[in-house]
């Protein structure tokens, strides 16, 4: 069966109190909208239509970043969810099949739930997704008659008896495309909000002799985000699930609640993550690696057997081959480290290639930026970079070469050479004692003068 997704994302999100459209607020480094699109992608839709409104341009951009050929339609004025869904009609011209309506602010629907909605369509013309709410608050209420859904009543329009119903509307629905748009055409706005409610299609369908039902999913899936507090709760839900999924996949998390994952974090089996590690977007870690406490990773790749941290920072473009060692207070950016390379202490390696088994001494810095342009540093395999070496890029140090501690390397070093680039040491006998005497005398004189 062919499926089209319609994702409603036009709302302003007044309660977010933000200049950013609500659906672009991030959860685990991806906009809410991207999560909704990813959830819907589980249905392998033939078409995806986003209904944008507030911040339509930015919303379009965010949607395209997830799926290049997504269709975006603009709802110029927000007149309700039925009015929003109606905007998708033109983009679904010629489409025959199933329409599934999702809300961008309800981004955690599981693939299993979506499958169950589609399955329920076999017996009913219209399927609504509901949930049993611990606190039904202001959600629309589902009025059931046995297995059938009679209608949905919005909180504002509900009687006391209807408000007592705890089976609530998530907003998601599935229906044949042609039927859905026929039903939407019949929706009016004679209600407490003066809006076109998508929920009204249920009553209209029933009046036309069509059947409707509601299936239930876990409340955590239908978590709607309307405020910053909801956003924080959604983040927590996402993190809890992502951590659980990783552990299920064979990753050790010593203190799971302290590890922050991004929506696209990939970690291999038998890798261990110590407490307080933060993953930004675009990180892949292979199997059998160790990410030690308080490290921050983003846009990087860590291969099998590598050890990172504690207190390491891997920035975009950091590529660690197998068995690399990155130690405390080391920052790696846009640099490829070959197998077994070591940068163990207090270093900055940026815009560089570090050869296999090279050892980068404590305090080494690739001086990659001249204030205008970035330049590359290349260190050959088995090279030994002495502590506190400044590698002034563009520069290369050949395989098996060595730089003396404290060197400022401005010229290329040929393989197997030793580069010494520091002032020669001079020792002056007795001079320290004289210096101390002089300084102490000066201090005593100042104390006398000050009275
Ligand atoms: C809606 C449902 C309610 C349900 C609740 C679940 C209706 C009438 N009510 O209420 O039964 O319990 O969701 O969260 O459908 N949107 C547009 N254009 C509009 C209006 C809304 O795109 O003109 C989008 C919003 O961006 C949002 C979604 O539709 O993604 C839901 O809109 P919202 O205003 O939050 O509806 P609720 O009042 O929460
Ligand atoms: Mg809402």
If you had to describe this structure to a student in words, what would you say it looks like?
The chain is an alpha/beta fold and 451 residues long. It folds into two domains: 3-222, Spore Coat Polysaccharide Biosynthesis Protein SpsA, Chain A, CATH 3.90.550; 228-419, Hexapeptide repeat proteins (UDP N-Acetylglucosamine Acyltransferase, domain 1, 3 Solenoid). Helix 1 (32-41) crosses helix 2 (56-66). The protein is elongated. The chain starts with a strand and ends with a helix. The structure holds uridine-diphosphate-N-acetylglucosamine and magnesium ion. The site of magnesium ion has 3 residues, from loops.
Q: For the terminal residues, how far apart are their CA atoms?
A: 96 Å
> What's the oligomerization state?
single chain
| Distinct small molecules bound, one entry per kind | uridine-diphosphate-N-acetylglucosamine, magnesium ion
CATH class call of the largest domain: Alpha Beta
Assign a percent range to the helix content. 10-25%
State the domain count. 2
Q: CATH homologous superfamily of the largest domain?
A: Spore Coat Polysaccharide Biosynthesis Protein SpsA, Chain A
- Strand content of the residues, in percent? 25-35%
Rg measurement, Å: 31 Å
Count of helices?
9
Estimate the global geometry from the Cα principal axes: elongated
CATH architecture of the largest domain: Alpha-Beta Complex
- The overall pLDDT average reads 97
Structural class: alpha/beta
User: According to CATH, what is the topology of the largest domain?
Assistant: Spore Coat Polysaccharide Biosynthesis Protein SpsA, Chain A
Q: How many strand units? A: 35
Please outline the major beta sheet: 11 strands, parallel
Low-confidence stretches: none
């Amino acid at each position: 069966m062919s499926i089209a997704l319609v994702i409603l994302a036009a709302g302003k999100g007044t309660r977010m109190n933000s200049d950013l459209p609500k659906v672009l607020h991030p959860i685990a480094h991806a906009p809410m909208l991207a999560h909704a699109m990813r959830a819907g992608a589980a249905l392998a839709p033939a078409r995806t239509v986003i209904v944008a409104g507030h911040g339509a341009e930015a919303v379009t951009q965010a949607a395209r970043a997830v799926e290049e050929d997504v269709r975006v339609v603009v709802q110029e004025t927000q007149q309700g969810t039925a009015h929003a869904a109606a905007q998708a009609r033109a983009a679904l011209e010629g489409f025959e099949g199933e329409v599934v309506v999702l809300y961008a602010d309800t981004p955690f629907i599981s693939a299993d739930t979506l499958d169950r909605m589609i399955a329920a369509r076999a017996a009913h013309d219209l399927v609504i997704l509901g949930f049993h709410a611990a606190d039904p608050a202001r959600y629309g209420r589902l009025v059931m008659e046995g297995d059938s859904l009679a209608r949905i009543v919005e909180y504002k329009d509900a009687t006391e008896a209807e408000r007592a119903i705890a089976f609530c509307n998530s907003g998601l629905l599935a229906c044949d495309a042609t039927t859905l748009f026929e039903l939407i055409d019949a929706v009016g706005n004679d209600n407490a909000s003066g809006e076109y409610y998508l929920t009204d299609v249920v009553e209209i369908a029933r009046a036309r002799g069509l059947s409707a039902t509601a299936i239930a999913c876990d409340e955590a899936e239908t978590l709607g985000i309307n405020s910053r507090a909801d956003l924080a709760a959604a983040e927590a839900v996402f993190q809890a699930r992502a951590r659980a999924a990783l552990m299920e996949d064979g990753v050790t998390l010593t203190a799971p609640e302290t590890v922050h994952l991004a929506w696209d974090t990939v970690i291999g089996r038998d890798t261990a993550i110590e407490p307080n590690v933060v993953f930004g977007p675009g990180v892949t870690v292979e199997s059998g690696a160790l990410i030690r406490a308080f490290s921050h990773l983003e846009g990087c790749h860590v291969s099998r057997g590598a050890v990172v941290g504690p207190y390491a920072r891997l920035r975009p473009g950091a590529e660690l081959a197998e068995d690399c060692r990155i130690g405390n207070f080391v920052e790696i950016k846009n640099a490829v480290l070959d197998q077994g390379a070591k940068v163990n202490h207090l270093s900055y390696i940026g815009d560089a290639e570090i050869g296999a088994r090279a050892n980068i001494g404590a305090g080494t810095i690739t001086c990659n930026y001249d204030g205008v342009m970035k330049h590359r540093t290349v260190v050959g395999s088995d090279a030994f970079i002495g502590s506190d070496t400044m590698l002034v890029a563009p520069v290369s140090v050949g395989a098996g070469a060595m730089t003396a501690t404290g060197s400022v390397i401005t010229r290329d070093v040929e393989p197997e050479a030793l580069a010494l680039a520091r002032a020669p040491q001079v020792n002056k006998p007795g001079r320290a004692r004289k210096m101390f005497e002089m300084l102490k005398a000066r201090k005593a004189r100042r104390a006398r003068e000050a009275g």
